From TrEMBL:
Organism whose genome encodes this protein: Actinopolymorpha singaporensis
Protein family (similarity comment): Belongs to the methyltransferase superfamily. RNA methyltransferase RsmG family.
GO molecular function: rRNA (guanine-N7-)-methyltransferase activity
Annotated HAMAP family: 16SrRNA_methyltr_G
Record's keyword annotation contains Transferase: yes
Descriptive protein name: Ribosomal RNA small subunit methyltransferase G
Organism domain of life: Bacteria
Length: 263
């Protein structure tokens, strides 16, 4: 395997080893359905790296669907529902940040962020071997030098990151302790959520406070680019992440525009 994409897929192994395909195999698999054309808004998100995003779309439509990482019905809406939906997160991540994508699956949003923001150092955390193998192959095929794939459960991983991302991993109440435990003090958890984001945040308040959350907010991203903006719950880690913060918990329930939160 090339040294371009760092790979630690063997870090956690509770199952018998499975034969791994070579990193080039993902590029040779024929897509059962061609990836759709990228919309004009894709250029605003990916800029000069749009060709990489298009290549990733092809890999998702091909090897991703063949290996069961993406449903065939998702291919026609690959850009709006997946790539652009994740890509708008890049606008709220600090320069040169370290990012951990929990339960990365097919690389959403981790791979997308690494394409859109080459300045980021992105760790893709995925416990399942077949998914971790796919991620390693994609990272090498696209020459994403800032990507590291770690095969492990989030609960077992040790690290301190500026930003922790999660998409369709777990309810916020269950995600709180693990995600905040991976954040540096002052770092952020960006949990991609749907229309129930406000309700889910309210229900998770006790767990968030106990895990050391210093501030929580709901942000809606990409309203000028997407037909349906991406809803993100941002949780800022306090000084006592993983335990109750001694500082007064801030309960900022405002959306990204500064107006009162509406769900």
């Amino acid at each position: 395997m090339s040294r371009r994409a760092k790979n630690r897929t063997g870090e956690s192994s509770s199952s018998k080893p499975e034969p791994e395909a070579s990193a080039s195999d993902v590029s040779r698999e024929t897509p059962p359905t061609a990836a759709p054309e990228s919309p004009p808004s894709a250029e605003e998100i990916f800029g000069e790296r749009l060709p990489l995003a298009r290549r990733y779309a092809e890999l998702l439509a091909g090897a991703g669907t063949e290996r069961g990482l993406l449903g065939p019905r998702e291919v026609p809406r690959l850009w709006d529902r997946h790539l652009l939906n994740c890509g708008v997160l890049a606008s709220v991540i600090p320069a040169n940040a370290t990012v951990c994508d929990i339960g990365s699956g097919a690389g959403l949003p981790g791979i997308v962020l690494a394409i859109a923001r080459p300045d980021l150092r992105v760790t893709l955390l995925e416990p399942l071997l077949r998914r971790a193998t796919f991620l390693s192959e994609v990272a090498e095929a696209l020459e994403l030098t800032g990507v590291t794939v770690v095969r492990a459960r989030a609960e077992d991983h040790r690290g301190t990151y500026d930003v922790v991302t999660a998409r369709a991993v777990a309810p916020l109440s269950r995600l709180a302790r693990v995600a905040l435990g991976l954040c540096r003090p002052g770092g952020s958890v960006l949990a991609m959520k749907g229309e129930r984001a406000g309700t889910e945040l309210d229900e998770a308040r006790p767990e968030l406070d106990a895990a050391g959350a210093a501030e929580c907010s709901i942000e809606r991203l990409g309203a000028d680019l997407l037909s349906v903006p991406t809803t993100v719950v941002r949780v800022v880690a306090g000084a006592s992440r993983g335990g109750r913060s001694s500082a007064k918990q801030k309960r900022n329930r405002r959306d990204g525009s500064g107006s009162a939160r509406g769900v």
